[in-house]
Model the fold of this input.
Amino acid sequence: MIKIEQVTKKFNAGTANEVVALKGVNLQINAGEYVVLIGTNGSGKSTLLNTIAGAEFVDSGKVSIDSTDVTKLPDYKRSRWLARVMQNPLAGTAPDLSILDNFRLAALRTKSKGLKIGTDAAFKSEVKERIAHLGMGLENKLEQNMGTLSGGQRQALTIVMSAMDDPKIILLDEPTAALDPQSAETVMQLVEQIRAEFGVTVILVTHNMRHAHKFGNRLVLMHKGNVQKDLNAAQKAALSVNDIFDWF
Ligand SMILES: Nc1ncnc2c1ncn2[C@@H]1O[C@H](COP(=O)(O)OP(=O)(O)OP(=O)(O)O)[C@@H](O)[C@H]1O
Ligand SMILES: [Mg+2]
Done:
């Protein structure tokens, strides 16, 4: 469970450029929920994800994960709970390293005793099997450099990578924004698959209202640094795509 209590986050505090990105946000996300987070540009969605991930520290308020107060924990110390996928498919992977080496790096980042990973045949076969699930044929290209893949292929691999360590929570910030419609569908289906397989909690930020309508079991609208609407599965199911458009 993620609990955000009275969280405020300012940028450039005390200067002429001060922005209050989060204004006393309260939000509780239960294990296994799939929260879709929408809102206009600058409404605070990425900042909220960043405060959950520990990439940004809050100015006031409290962030807890599974009853542990993580408010002051840096991102790498939250990685046992969290994985994160960004908008840019180039982010978070090394283009000059092979697919397999990128998976090794990702595993080393989150595993304290990761020294065996580099040579472990079991690790390779696990990576291969998980990549095969994508149905993109990439399992036969494990030695190919990450940089030679398309944005959609990279993003799909990044998400598979994020799920390798069985995180409890996956944070996705506009993961399909840079992708063509078909790659975007593949990525969204992949999120469904990971949820079905691991029961992971997902928070997805999107500007795609069709996705916001179709996916998830909770819909949260942010506006000017706060939660403006928070719909549960039943309330969400009663909406049409146009109803959601009308919120903007
Ligand atoms: N590092 C930063 N320095 C200064 N201001 C920032 C920083 N990050 C975010 N902001 C500001 O905080 C506010 C919220 O930004 P945020 O990125 O959370 O919005 P968002 O809802 O993710 O928007 P978008 O849909 O455009 O991604 C904006 O006014 C933004 O300019
Ligand atoms: Mg954003």
